[in-house]
Amino acid sequence: MKLATKLIHAGIVPDPSTGAIMTPIYQTATYVQESPGNHKGYEYARTQNPTRDTLQNALAAVENGNYGLCFASGSAATDAVIKLLNPGDEVIAANDMYGGTYRMFTKIFEKYGLKFHFINMQDAKEVSQYVNQNTRLIWTETPTNPMMNITDIEAVATVAKGKNILLCVDNTFASPYLQNPLDLGADIVLHSATKYLGGHSDVVHGCLIMNDPALNEKLSFIQNACGAVPGPQDCFLILRGLKTLHIRMQRHCENGEKIAYWLKKNPRVDKVIWCGFEDHPNYEVAKKQMRGFGGMMSFTLKDDSMEAANKVLSSTTLFSLAESLGGVESLIGHPATMTHASIPREERLKTGLVDSLIRLSVGIEDADDLIADLEKAIG
Ligand SMILES: Cc1ncc(COP(=O)(O)O)c(C=O)c1O
Fold first, then answer.
1. Which band of pLDDT confidence, cut at 50, 70 and 90, is reported for residue 174?
2. Catalytic residue list contains 195
3. How far is the CA of 212 from the centre of ligand 1 (A)?
4. pTM for this predicted structure
5. CA dihedral 103, 104, 106, 111 (to 10 degrees)
6. Closest Cα to atom 7, ligand 1: which residue?
């Protein structure tokens, strides 16, 4: 099946008890057994839930994987992957990934004896320099937030291969519509399904997808033992969101391209960072591994001040000033004071995250209306 068909049908069967075409929300904590151990495959809802099972199968199919596991959030999915490790293990991670992942690695897991190396993931050679006998995991996110840097997944997978090192790719920004990391050699794909998979800014959810049965067994054990599972209603919302991912993403990409080119021509705008521009430093890699360039972008102003950024951020109407991304509605954000506020100014300036940098999650409204909104705000 091609992706559009998989998104609508894969893993989904009419409900066996009623024939309902939409997977019911099995809002139950437990299941009745006929006699001890004699049950229908469901014992307790932290361990198994039919709504969650259906979603896990659907997610595995759309990421071209064998197994899917759902979690209460993208962060809970990240937490489960790190719990595969033992004290003394080392992780090589991207130095410009989602701030919450950085915070979890440094503030929660370093104290359990794990060592993290945060490096530039745009160059696989640099990654190989940090590999040693303790390396057990390479963690990357591509494109990154908010600088839109791209990791060459195939090249980094080659670095990990044959060394007992897992490669986990956070595919939240691209979504399975644009990129399938397992096909490029990754061992685990992670999504904050809160974003494009859900697509409607109405649910917090996360998932992992993989091919290896032994890895699935270990992560299923963590999912059940640690218990950060999503509720069935949240699983239902992601199942519903998945069905339109392809048409939403198509429009996100079309609108993203129009807005990126419009911003580039605006005299008050300094730099536009969108991985579909030929002058983006990782354009060739993006073209090779992605099927489009998406609706996420950042731009800076010629007047690189907090005041100038604030004026734009408070003047849009259709672009709502809010955290998060990937919903049908357009969002505007200010990484320096929002998602990346915990990073000291000198540090963020080194990665290009200047005071006037503004991030857009371009939604699926009419592109002309979105451009008019930005024109009003930027001038
Ligand atoms: C790229 C990326 N990964 C992971 C997460 C964490 O996901 P959640 O907010 O669902 O816990 C986010 C959240 O913004 C994200 O942007």
1. very high
2. yes
3. 24
4. 0.97
5. 150
6. 74
Q: Which of 6, 52, 136, 195 is catalytic?
A: 195
Q: Residue 206 CA: which ligand 1 atom is closest?
A: 10
Do 266 and 378 form a contact (C-beta atoms < 8 A)?
yes
pLDDT of residue 341: 82
Q: What is the pLDDT of residue 342?
A: 72
Q: Determine contact, residues 239/58, Cβ cutoff 8 Å.
A: yes
Task: State whether the beta carbon of 170 lies less than 6 angstroms from ligand 1.
Answer: yes
130: annotated active-site residue: no
d(CA 234, CA 38): 29
CA–CA separation, 239 vs 54, rounded Å?
8
Give the whole-angstrom CA distance, residue 90 versus residue 149.
23
pLDDT in tens, 27-50: 999 999 999 999 999 999 999 999
Ligand 1 centroid – CA 192 distance (Å): 5
Strand order in the sheet with 67-71: 67-71, 206-210, 188-192, 166-170, 135-141, 90-94, 115-119
Whether the CB of 74 sits within 6 Å of ligand 1:
yes
Ligand 1 centroid from CA 81, angstroms: 14
Distance CA 183, CA 289 (A): 10
